[in-house]
């Protein structure tokens, strides 16, 4: 099985790799992981378990995702990998001119403007219909039960909930936000660790989604409620936008990294950035993980990859460069040649012109799922549809109002998307799903996890435990408190502006499940930077 040295346990208590054979679920919330495992025990497959876990997470970790989220999935079934893009698009009656006339110079972070069509409920229904074994009503029952009966908050969840509440009490003054407080702060405060929280609105909505296979959300009662709310507040999203939505099955993209195929969802997702970086890095040999040269080259490659990604990535049919050109060996060599001994100021190249939850699931039959969903920036837009528990995402915030930018806002267009599931295979056999949630940290986390696994032979838990770095902008690089001081100082001397941060959650929260091709044994790791759990069977 890939990666078996274990040498990094920086957060105090040593976590061990979890093994199983009949099934496994890894995610950031223990109760959600167990909900998915229970579905496996009831006869469901990895796809059913992924849906159950994802639905439960909208209740059990609302600080990171919700019913109004977007989602992406990589699914390995019957020897083939499938990609699902369930990201929504901008409303049909919004435009750059409208927003500029209203006084906006850039897309706002909160409120009605950045709300796009949610894709997550459609993702659950689509995955269930195409690959699931159990009825959607059975698969979503754990989520409904937790919403109705309540659950006690875990420590990390309580920390982020309180931080959001403290921020929102200062910034959410308009009437459009009052339903957020009714739903998520019913006692006029944030719930604390160990406090019970429930939401009948969540339960009712999840039940309608399950019973109608998401039809209610897009073309029924729930769609009417969403439409009415945005009409009352002179918003842009309409029931016609919802009715026209359908998630898209896509061909995943990949690079081969030292014999392993690393898979990502194609644009509009930023998984392309991780692949661009790995395509450059495979031109080097790395004999030691904790060396100045290793970190320097990783950071430089990621800076160049991000420069290209932020310049070119948007909805794929709106891109003026092709994915194949960005991932070509010739272009990787051209970009790699820019990496010298000193930190560079990154700029986009010229190729030829042509807040999130993550979960991994696997079953005993060889099916595996890499799934991610998010409202973006924690609770999302701050807009909650009254009585429903539906917190609307603010994905539209990443649109540009610059008419000359690839990711410029247009009606019906999908924006540059930060959430990305990852998957590893070798010799046409699945190794397994992996992911690192957390905004623009995600492709950086993907590249670091892949290298920890392939180059440095770390097992799943050690690959996640290892101290991380995050390129922020220009020459600024953030590192964790556990990042080696002598290496941080050496990187400073190379021109990197190193900033140690006290907050591990800034560096993403990941999960991994690897499968042994000969025995079928599953090995899972979960993030030490959150309340993660691996539930095995």
Mind explaining what this structure looks like?
- This protein has helices spanning 30-41, 46-60, 96-101, 120-131, 136-139, 141-149, 155-171, 178-184, 200-212, 215-219, 221-232, 239-243, 271-281, 292-312, 323-326, 329-336, 442-454, 460-465, 485-493; strands at 18-20, 23-27, 70-77, 80-86, 151-152, 196-197, 248-250, 253-257, 260-264, 357-363, 368-374, 384-385, 390-391, 422-426, 429-437, 469-473, 476-479, 497-500, 509-515, 522-526, 533-536.
- The chain is α+β, with helices and mostly antiparallel strands and 537 residues long.
- The protein folds into 2 domains: 18-249 and 358-398, no CATH class; 250-261 and 269-356 and 428-516, Orthogonal Bundle (Serum Albumin, Chain A, Domain 1).
- A hairpin with a 2-residue loop joins strand 16 (469-473) and strand 17.
- The longest helix is centred in the middle third of the chain and has 21 residues, at 292-312.
- The radius of gyration is 22 Å and the shape is globular.
- The two termini are 19 Å apart.
- The relative contact order is 0.20.
- Mean pLDDT is 93; it is low at 8-13.
- It comes from Alkalibacillus salilacus.
- Belongs to the gamma-glutamyltransferase family.
- Its EC number is 2.3.2.2, 3.4.19.13.
- Pathway: Sulfur metabolism; glutathione metabolism.
- This enzyme consists of two polypeptide chains, which are synthesized in precursor form from a single polypeptide.
List keywords for this structure.
single chain, 537 residues, alpha+beta, Serum Albumin, Chain A, Domain 1, seven-stranded antiparallel sheet, 21 strands
